[in-house]
Amino acid sequence: DTAVSQTPKYLVTQMGNDKSIKCEQNLGHDTMYWYKQDSKKFLKIMFSYNNKELIINETVPNRFSPKSPDKAHLNLHINSLELGDSAVYFCASSLPLRGVSRKSSYNEQFFGPGTRLTVL
Amino acid sequence: GIQVEQSPPDLILQEGANSTLRCNFSDSVNNLQWFHQNPWGQLINLFYIPSGTKQNGRLSATTVATERYSLLYISSSQTTDSGVYFCAVVETSGSRLTFGEGTQLTVNP
User: Fold this and answer.
1) CB proximity under 8 Å: A 3-62 to B
2) Which chain B residue's Cα is nearest to A104?
3) pLDDT in tens, B40-77
């Protein structure tokens, strides 16, 4: 009965490869997010989707492309992986506020277990 | 954007001690959350507390929104409390959850 799940948990790959990380939530939430945690443990948002619509797109290289097939899933595809992409990637989700669909982030966000990506 | 500062950056305690972690933020907020990142890397929700006081077992939190700070209290600490504690906020005019740099807590037996 995991609330927010991610696969894989660990991902080790060579520079230049393309990889995907999958995220699923069974909380019935409308909004999902991707965060990146760097080697100094600093967490920063990358993307946010509300009901399959892109809401937030931070300054992230366009090698990173989120895809939301439905509101319960938000996958992250990364092209041409670089050494600097090594990090832990967290997926999260939250409920929208009634009548304020673009401010779902005001509600409590729940995080997945993270995917540790290592680029060699 | 909003600035989030946590203090202290590092804290070492003996089991059984009490502690207070602080989070200051530079603007008004609509969301404030406290998280515990355990040694296995999981981010665990502790409190959703944009204002007021909440308690959950040995942990409690208070947010004074008008003075732009929040406090996390840990009483009778245990070794399993070790990890990094993060404060994160969404400013009233924004939509992004912005994290502080965390407090690294080590509880020794």
Assistant:
1) 33, 40-45, 48, 55-56, 58
2) B95
3) 999 999 999 999 999 999 999 999 999 999 999 999 99
Task: Check: CB of residue B45 under 8 Å from CB of residue A110.
Answer: yes
Cα–Cα distance measured from residue A69 to residue A11, given in angstroms and rounded to the nearest whole number: 22
Using the structure block, give the residue that is written with the tokens 């946590």.
B6
Place of tokens 């981010």: B43
Q: Which of A88, A105, A116 sits opposite B95 (nearest CB)?
A: A105
Q: Considering only alpha carbons, which residue of chain B is nearest residue A57?
A: B96
Residues across chain B: 109
pLDDT digits (tens, 9 = 90+) for B20-47: 999 999 999 989 999 999 999 999 999 9
Return residues 41-80 of B near A (CB < 8 Å).
Answer: 41-43, 45, 48, 50
Rounded Cα distance, B22 and A32, in Å? 28
Reduced to 3 states (helix: H, G, I; strand: E, B; else coil), residue A93 is strand
B42, B97, B99: residue with CB nearest A113: B42
Say if strands A10-13 and A115-119 run parallel, antiparallel, or are unpaired.
parallel
DSSP A100: B
